[in-house]
Amino acid sequence: MSLKDKVLSELLLSSGEYCSGRQLAEKFGVSRTAVWKAIDHLKAQGCKIDAVTNKGYLLKEIPDIYNQKYMELLLEGTGFQVQHFTEIDSTNKQAKMLAGQHAPSRTVVTADRQTAGRGRMGKSFHSPTGGLYMSVIVRPDLPLTATMSITACTAAAVHEALKKFGIITQIKWVNDLFLHGRKICGILSEGSFNAELLKMDYLVIGIGINLHPDPHLPEELKTIVTDIETETGKHINRCQLLAEILKQMQKYFSEMPERTYLKIYEENSCTLGHKVRTDTGITGTATGFTEEAGLIIKLPDGTETILSTGSAEILK
Fold it and tell me: How far apart, in whole angstroms, are the C-alpha atoms of residue 264 and residue 267?
């Protein structure tokens, strides 16, 4: 950890108290000039720090930069363990490798940027610097048929987490969150299964959220996706949002038998009531969800079918 990060950690852990420059220098075995330079670097990154003679330094506001100590403080008592990367090909790929090596449930992989982010149905997920990219390992004692439920439960948890920051999203079946009619979040669940017992060995849940504008957004995505800053003007700290998402996931996963997530999923759906077309060519009106989060579609002849996998395009 660099001196800059060590100093930031101390400021974060000071709980609103001033940190003496002399004490920081002594703790890290450096000069007070080195501490001052570290403070200067933090200010350049967007940290708002008060410097008062004979009192020291006080962190007033932290910018959108990852700090491990801050993350540990936010997640204290939850059991989540975060591994962070500045750049990675795919957080899901890394998490699957760790899961295969017996990493425990609640292991989390995050990255500032993905070079080969993955979406559903083999699609790529554009993942520039500035978004929140995370993958969570879970080892639920659930049957294979619960995979859709877990994805829907995650969508509800992300919706509730964003709501804490004043962001009200809509959920498109089964795994996307929309803001003002365009996508800001995608969820991808991948796992390993015990074929003999028909149960999950582990599931890796990948979540990608667009927080800030991307000047290099591909032309074909400009009418499809958006970001939170563009739509609301809000700057959300990634560490704080990551922690809130994990806490909401913990809450709603613990309530899976009661399906408390399903009410949130239904109330904030942008799919229900609309005409949809499945990837297999079926066209009808989305009328509800099953207890396992399958999409109920009313066909033109009045009969119903249930979509338990694949995708459903909303028709205008």
Answer: 5
Number of structural domains found in the chain: 3
**pLDDT score of 61:** 83
3-state SS, residue 289: strand
Within a 10 A sphere around the Cβ of 255, how many other Cβ atoms? 12
Render pLDDT for 246-263 as a digit per residue (tens, 0 to 9): 999 999 999 999 999 999
Q: 36-57, pLDDT tens digit by residue?
A: 999 999 998 888 999 999 899 9
- Gap between the Cα atoms of 112 and 114, Å rounded: 7
Q: Are residues 256 and 281 in the same domain?
A: no
- Sign of the CA dihedral with 86 first, then 89, 91, and 97 last: negative
221 plus 161 within the same structural domain: yes
Using an 8 Å Cβ cutoff, are 245 and 134 in contact? Answer: yes
Q: Is the pLDDT of residue 62 over 70?
A: yes
Residue 1, number of CB atoms within 10 A of its CB: 10
Give residue 123's pLDDT band: very low, low, confident or very high (50, 70, 90): low
DSSP class of residue 285?
A: E
Contact present, 81 and 106 (Cβ < 8 Å):
yes
- The DSSP 8-state label assigned to residue 271 in this structure reads S
Which CATH number covers residue 25? 1.10.10.10
How is residue 16 written in tokens?
């609103």
68's tokens: 């491990």
The residue range of the domain holding 7 is 3-61
Q: Are residues 106 and 240 in the same domain?
A: yes
Beta carbons within 8 Å of 40's beta carbon, 6+ residues apart:
none
Residue 122 has pLDDT above 60, yes or no: no
